[in-house]
Amino acid sequence: MPSRDVNEITQQIIGCAYKVSNSLGIDFVEKVYENALAHILRKDGLIVAQQHPVKVTFEGVVVGEFFADLLVEQRVLVELKAVSALMQEHTAQALNYLRATGLEGGLSSDKLRKAESGNQVPPSFGVLEV
Question: Which of 21, 25, 38, 106 is the most buried (most CB within 10 A)?
Answer without folding.
Answer: 106
